[in-house]
Write a structure and sequence with these properties.
Blueprint lengths: L16 H16 L13 H6 L7 E11 L2 E11 L6 E11 L10 E6 L9 E8 L3
Parallel strand pairs: 3-5
Antiparallel strand pairs: 1-2, 1-4, 2-3, 4-5
Length: 135
């Protein structure tokens, strides 16, 4: 048997060249089709992009207690919170300095304010709309 020439077939211990090539071809598309992040759509309106902010700006409602400064009002916001130990509902009042564009809010008006970038030392809110005028 040693007189016979070696045949082209491989032994069972070695993988055939065809099997190796098939594995390489089948593995290549799997690497190409890996999941990717979706591309941003150019058709999306600008309002949706601003709504997708990770941290939404806070919005509060309150009563204007002072409108004596130029383009600034002080808004008193009442929050009802439960006492941590006794459970009784309490009122906590915050005085927010808000930017009043056009000086349209007056004392006694009920307004909606929204958090914004710092505009001065104390002013971090702006008046979004006047909900109810003072009588």
């Amino acid at each position: 048997m040693s007189d016979q020439a070696p045949s082209d077939s491989t032994t069972p211990d070695e993988p055939s060249a065809v099997a190796v090539a098939e594995e390489a071809v089948s593995a290549a598309p799997a690497a190409v089709t890996a999941p990717t992040a979706p591309a941003p759509s150019a058709e999306a309106p600008a309002t949706e992009a601003s709504d997708a902010r990770p941290n939404r700006r806070k919005v509060r409602e309150g009563v204007v207690v002072s409108a004596k400064m130029q383009e600034t009002v002080i808004v008193s916001v009442i929050d009802k919170v439960r006492h941590p130990r006794y459970g009784k509902t309490m009122q906590r009042t915050k005085r927010l300095y808000a930017h009043n564009i056009g000086n349209d809010a007056r004392e006694g008006d009920r307004v909606r304010v929204q958090e914004t970038r710092p505009m001065s030392k104390l002013k971090r809110w702006r008046v979004v709309e006047v909900l109810e005028r003072a009588r």
